[in-house]
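User: Here's a chain of 433 residues. Predict its fold as tokens.
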Amino acid sequence: MLDIKLIREKSDFVRQRLATRGAGDEKAVEGILQADEARRTALSEVEALKATRNRVSKEIGALMGQKKLAEADAKKAETKDLGDKIAALDAQAKDAEVKRDEMLLALPNLPHESVPAGKSAEDNPVVRAHGEKATFAFKPKSHVELCETLKLVDFARAAKLSGSGFLLYTNWGARLERALIQFLLDLHTQEHGYTEVSPPFVVGPQCLVGVGQFPKFKDQYYGAVEGDRADAMGKLYLIPTAETPVANIHREEILAEKQLPIQYCAYTPCFRGEAGAAGVGTRGMIRVHQFDKVELIKIVKPEDGYAEHDKMLANAERVLQLLGLHYRVVMLCTGDMGFASAKTYDIEVWSPGQGSYLEVSSVSNCEDFQARRMNLRFKSETGENKFPHILNGSGTALARLFVALIETHQQTDGSVTIPQPLQKYLGTDRLVA
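Assistant: Prediction complete.
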């Protein structure tokens, strides 16, 4: 969440940065300030009343010592009245704090000053492109055609099992998916210096709050319960991304500065309801409810945040370079950024069969926004407790990488050639019918 001190001291600046997102979030600032002022006023009055009560308590002791019992009893009644007022004001302060924090949790991060203003994806500038779009001497097939011809994915039986938006990889398709996951993990751990972790696939709501997915987007995720216990609803959720558990690994801890930077990577399936998402009911692998992903997480000192952001982006780009895929990097404008992000780059890979670019990675610096929500700090060498920057990036996401790979490397005879880095995992250089 945002620093309440920043909102108090630079409320106009906060409003201006929030307004660039175009969602009207700046309107909430006044309510936050009012609740914060109500809390601070109540606490100030409590402190004054406590000082009075302490003074009266000392007077009671003196009166008791002087055997002035009637006067002492009157003072005791006064302290009881003071105690009642203190309790009432404490309750007011707590109510105001809860109201303030609820509004803070619903407020998105401030876009970094380098983020371009814009309203939607159409306003996202292209930062760079790598390689050239694949060209063919024939009309390229879509991934749906390739998957059916080569028996890589059984769309019909997946729908029979779970409904639309789910995939059943088969034979070489299942092996290719597994090979991609292993390739990504090996690349990031062996060449890029990340430590692999394998987190739970279900987490408590505090983890979703920590990364900024709750409470604003609660309707987009799958709740998990044991059996049909209605009373257990809301205690566990299927993860929408490995970011959710991995970024929270050190929640409520105070790390030593020498532990930073921390670099994790993790493979997990990802589960997303995304009710009403366009195209989720159509055949294919572009938008699905369950997909695999290798996620990158960094916890770094604030002064290193943006240098590490650039490194993480390069790590994700390396995946597509090694697989011989054309892609472009775009910077998300203020109106297209994620809730928790201060700055985001998207990597979009070219999909010949779709004739369009597909997002396969989103690399974000959330600055200290998530660290504040999960109360993760580090102790500097001077002894000061600080909030680190937390970064996340897809390194990368499947099934869209799967789609781009088979569409890009399809051949005239209907086969698909396998890029050299994947051949050792698959034991073949070509997929044939």
